[in-house]
Amino acid sequence: MTTLRSLLLNRLDGAKRVAVLAIGSEFRADDAAGILVGKSILKKNKSRRLKVFMGETAPENLTGEIRRFKPSHIIIVDTADMKESPGTVLLLKPEELSKDITFSTHKMPAEILIEYFIKTMGCTVTFIGIQPLTIKFGTKPSKHVKESAREVASAILGAMK
User: Fold this and answer.
1) What span, in angstroms and rounded, lies between the C-alpha atoms of 128 and 148?
2) Mean pLDDT score of the chain
3) Global pTM?
């Protein structure tokens, strides 16, 4: 079975600069998945080629800052309802996103943001979705999503070595 780290190593082949766009809301339980990943990477990152952008619920507000970083690759991490078990992680290329996947509570649809990055920056975009248990307002993230967020952060950091 192929691990997330090995999939990322393949996907990031030749990467000069990698931007991680962490999306979600810490106020909506498992919708915090992307934010948990971003915070974990920020604590442990030692690579100058990797930069985390905390997009939270308005990732479109960071497009200028991301452009200035000039990434060759962008990894978007968000909660995604993929009709899977809570904590399930899927790594998808933009063309693999389907109508059956619904994204977190942010304002701009992920598909539009991804298309913008590809067309205006010419970079490679990878989407990592984490299946939530619940996105109920005012509750904490589930143990499934917290564990998956740690694994995703570790895989991203490991792929940057």
Assistant:
1) 11
2) 90
3) 0.91
